[in-house]
Amino acid sequence: MNRCGLLTAQKNPVPLQSVEVELQVKDHVATVISTLNYQNKEDKPVEAVFVFPMPGDAAVCHFSAKIGQTHIVAELKEKQKAREEYDDALSSGQQAFLLEESEQSPDIFSLSVGSLPPGESASIRLEYVIELAVEADEALRFSLPAVLNPRYQPQGSEAPGLPVSSIPTSEVPYSLSFSVRVSSNRPVSKIESKCSMEPLQYLNSDQTEATVKLAAGHKFDRDVELLIYYKDAHQPSAVVEAGQDSAEPGTLMGDPVVMASFHHDFPESVRSSASSCGEFVLLLDRSGSMDSPMADSDHLTRIDSAKETLLLLMKSLPMGCYFNIYSFGDHFEHLFQKSVRYSQRTMRQALKKVEEMSADLGGTEILEPLQHIYGQHCIPGQPRQLFVFTDGEVSNTKNILDLVKENSGSHRCFSFGIGPGASSALVNGMAKEGGGHAQFITDNDRMQPKVMQSLRFALQPPVGDISVTWDLPKGVTVNVLSPPIQSVFQGQRSVIFAQLTGQSLQTVEGSLTVKYSVAGHPCQSQLSFSLKPADMDSCTDSPTLHRLAALTQIRWLEMEERGCDGEQSDSVKQKLVEVSVQSGVSSAFTAFIAVDQSNDRVIKGPMVHPELFADLYLKSSLFFFGDDDLFGSKNIFRRIYSSIRKRVLARSRDSSKPQREDPLLQLVSLQEACGRWLLDPALVVILGKTRQEVKKTKPGKVTKEVWATVLALIWLHSCKLEAKEEWELVAMKAVLWLQTQKDKSSPSVQSGIQTGACWNLLMPTRGHP
């Protein structure tokens, strides 16, 4: 029987015994403390390397080790110097530990545990700080990755990849404990997870503090994902954190730091309008890993889910736009030589091609198709919107982000990470550098609502003339640490970090104003805040905001360094290392090194080197009928809705009947590019009626297309209201088409519809399913 996991040369088990994770959430910021417990069961000293995933926007700020009764706190040093010290320590038989970030992707870390004596135990503690992402429903999302998939190394790449071995997550040979503490100025409404959690416990009467734990027996079959809900979470806020007494004033760690958060709200006239133009380029990953099943699904693979989503996306595109579809693996393909105008013909051609797609293109070479896309001339008056679907298993993340940033002035990038192994650094980075929005699809998530939310963002007019101004008292200056705001979307959040330098910070107030223009409308968000520093985090006793601010500056400097040459590059790198070491936040050019120099004991014997292991929208849409009969005293629509819902629920309870394909996707697939439906036999089947029944109840002067479209809209609102996010744009197209037909119809036609023909048709018929 083959053993799995981190194995020694003699195929004995890895010394990692357990992982303990403590999550401390304060408003929008989380501190994560992980403890890795090792034991060397070999009869020789062991050197183990543990590769694990880390969010790409996490500030790794502490690393320590406890061996027996000896506690060692690591120092953050320039990476090459740290590696040399590690090698020297091993050569002299000393116990040593090295924690470093991958040079290719900031979401992979490797921990080297060197020269652990026979029978000895060691506990490794590492800590990082992260700003939590805000979901569409205003939940704060935290994810603890359960798996790190092997990263694809592009051909010809000179960058050394991490040689990671992968095993089924259910066979991971160690345990996990996970506890959460949440505190905020606003009440905690609820905490949700798809993992089994113990009941939420509130720690005070106003429910601003709460704790929860992962239930015992958790299997490594999914990421541990939490959704944290606060009341009034969208309100703007600013927090000032005091500088450290031990740091020199005028430095990042010695001065106060402010974290300002804005929730953008566009004028109603802008929110109610949607663009009917644009060039939509869809880039789909067809590498072999996309053939992996979605979590908790025995038959639906990642590529299947992506293809279903492309169907919905294509049906939702506005008339008048342009589009193209690319797919990639170890090479790439494109449907058209250049983007074409969206029409019934081109849409059908594209959907036929999508239906034929499979995960059969080998590796994950995403850089080359991106270069080809950016090499195409933009279409005047058609802003380019790039949608990227990938499971994110690449190693040249930084090269990809550099390319997206170089072309950020000509497009917006919306990225989607599919599956638990998707790289947060790649998916978040592409959206950030491309001025778009990132989404992750994990566990039981449906891809469609998240993609449709991003499409609604893409249909919002681009925001321009973005500026940030500070109004501070005399003597107080500001050093903005965040890069300039590149994109603003309705309902989304922007965060700004800045260092405050000057006197009298304890008694005065300041303000911050973000201005921009959208569709010719000037907008602004203003926030006033006290410059009096808040108390330092009592749970972690650490400068969390300073560390997040430092990470923001580090990532900015890393991008700048990759765009420089020679002496300029060296200068930026020196500044980057200085900020990293001063703040204690890891970077691509620094590493944590810990050496036990407490005794002179030399550990003898040949070193055992284990293998690497990867740890892992109804009223407006039915205007055609008129308001009175649908929503007034006759309540026709309510009666239709009620009767159909009863029938649908009855069907869902009948488990003896075979399951059909998703009727929503079937209905959407029948819609034409202009937004109408034809009175097709397949539509009649979805409605649950016979063709004769549909024809018999149709008002005489109403065209078949109008009748079919009206029935399809009613079906959506009555049978699929819970999936409104997915079909809302499809319904809007249908409404716009009906508006063009309304002027062609006589009042008697509309009156005929209002008499209740729809009611007569859609009432359940005895004996009909």
From TrEMBL:
In terms of InterPro entries, this protein maps to: VIT (IPR013694), VWF_A (IPR002035), vWFA_dom_sf (IPR036465)
Query: Sorted alphabetically, which SMART domains does this protein's record hold?
Result: VIT, VWA
Which residues, by range, are in coiled-coil regions? none
Annotated VIT domain ranges read: 1-130
**Domain VWFA, which positions?**
279-455
**Mind telling me what this protein is named?**
Rap1 GTPase-activating protein 2-like
Q: Which organism is it from?
A: Oryzias melastigma
